[in-house]
Structure formats: structure tokens, C-alpha cells
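1st attempt posting a full record on here, be nice pls
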Amino acid sequence: MRLQRNDTLLLVIDVQEKLMPVIDRAAQTERNIERLVRGFHILDIPAILTEQYVRGLGPSTPAIKTAFEESGGYTPIEKSCFSSYGCSEFLTELRNRRKKHVVIAGVETHVCVYQTVSDLLANGYDVTIAADAVSSRTPENRDIAIRRMTADGARLSSTEMVLFELTVESGTDEFRSIARLIK
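the predicted structure (as C-alpha cells):
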């Protein structure tokens, strides 16, 4: 089952200023998340952003904040529970979007990402993890979480694969914009 534009949204989890300096492969992960945000905007697919305990972890990184601002607005959902699904504001936003498939990016893979994916799957959503756009403080925790999420039913993909899967065909203005974004 391929991703379909009309039934997909992007969820970016907790890419925050005070957290990213301790994340494994932080620069690469953040760059891929930025590409996803910009690519989903090009394809006119909605994106939701969460931030965990902003007082302690700070807001989203400048690159992610800018990508959201340039893609329709920086309106993060602040949460205190690890799973985004446990936050009523997120649930309202998710339900209002009426999408069945959620593409996931963010940190930390073994905590907030894992718990969110687990809850989404348990509540009937299809989930795709952009594996090169998630990370944790250690590669071991990231890898264990990815194995567990896929064993639970999430699909594994990559930033480039997700964007081209949603683009569908070459030769269009969207394709050219996505191709430039990937380079």
C-alpha cells in the first residue's frame, strides 16, 4: 500500500533546541526533517509539529521553525506526555485533518516517537516512519525502537522515498521542486 496524498499527513515530533545537540546524527536528521516539511508543503499535504516540555527543552530548532513558517505557519502543539496521542490538542488536530496515514519524523525514536507510533497503530492509523528523519541519543536506542515499531506494524521508509512516492510522476513542476529539495 503506497502513500496517497489525500489520506496522509506529516507528524514532526520534538526537534527542539536543547535536545538536538545530544542526538546522534543530529544534523543529518534535522536536514531530512526540514526536507520533509518543505516537501509536504510543495505537495500541499498537511504537517503537524509537537514540542515536548518547552520550558526545559526550548522551542523547535531554527531550521525546523523556519521550514514550518515558510510552509504555512509555525504553530507547534506543546505536550508534556511522551506520546503525542496522549495530548488532547494533538488528538483534536489529528481528527480535524481526517487523514488515515501518518508519516513520522523526529526525536527521540525510543521515547516520544515510539510511544506515539504505538498509540497511532493501536487506534487504527497507518504509520510510516521516515527512518533517516528519526534519531535518539544513541544509535542502539534508535535501532531497537525502529525494529519494535516495524514489528508492531509501522512501515519503514526514507525521506526521499516518501517524497517521491507522494509526488507520483516526473515531468511536473512539483517533481522539479521536490528534486531540487532532495539535492
